[in-house]
Amino acid sequence: MLYTLHTKQKLPVSLQEAWDFISDPKNLAVITPDSMGFKTLSGDDRAMYPGQIIHYIVTPVLGIKLQWVTEITHVVDKSFFVDEQRYGPYSFWHHKHFLKEIPGGVEMEDIVHYKIPMGFLGRLVHPFLVRPKLKEIFAYREKKLIELFGEWKEKQ
Predict the structure, then answer these.
(1) E strand residue ranges, the chain
(2) In this predicted model, what pLDDT tens digit does every residue of 1-17 receive, in sequence order?
(3) Keywords assigned by UniProt (predicted)?
């Protein structure tokens, strides 16, 4: 079964500021909860480009360390990029990151399509283990981006 996670966040920053931050692979560690034990092993030494391979260690649950290798498959400057898992905890991982300039800032949108391994067992643990963990990670990211860039205020 293919699952989808979809988030949007507005930030009071310029398109260039938002792009410079999210397209720098080093910043993924900044917006990932410490509890994930996230560490980049290689591939974050250059600005993002199509074909870039980034190798991480993550500790998503129960202190179990996992290797995760993603490839940046598409990049359109100041518009979007896509990362796809090549090796890691999911059977399938396709993550689209979109930026759109809006009055007073930027709207960031993420669309993640993913599949859990282990067939029936994976589907069984998804609603109470995997999905909540992904939501927690994205909620942390949203909070961290507000800390870094400020909270979006709707214009009256």
Answers:
(1) 2-11, 39-42, 52-58, 66-76, 80-87, 92-102, 105-115
(2) 999 999 999 999 999 99
(3) Cell cycle, Cell division
What span, in angstroms and rounded, lies between the C-alpha atoms of 59 and 39?
9
d(CA 27, CA 9): 17
Contacts (Cβ under 8 Å, ≥6 apart) of 86: 53, 69, 70, 71
* Residue bearing tokens 């930026």: 99
Average of pLDDT values for 108-129? 92
């980049």: which residue's tokens? Answer: 40
99 in Cβ contact with 80 (< 8 Å): yes
Q: Model's pTM, two decimal places?
A: 0.93
Domains and CATH numbers, the chain: 2-149 (3.30.530.20)
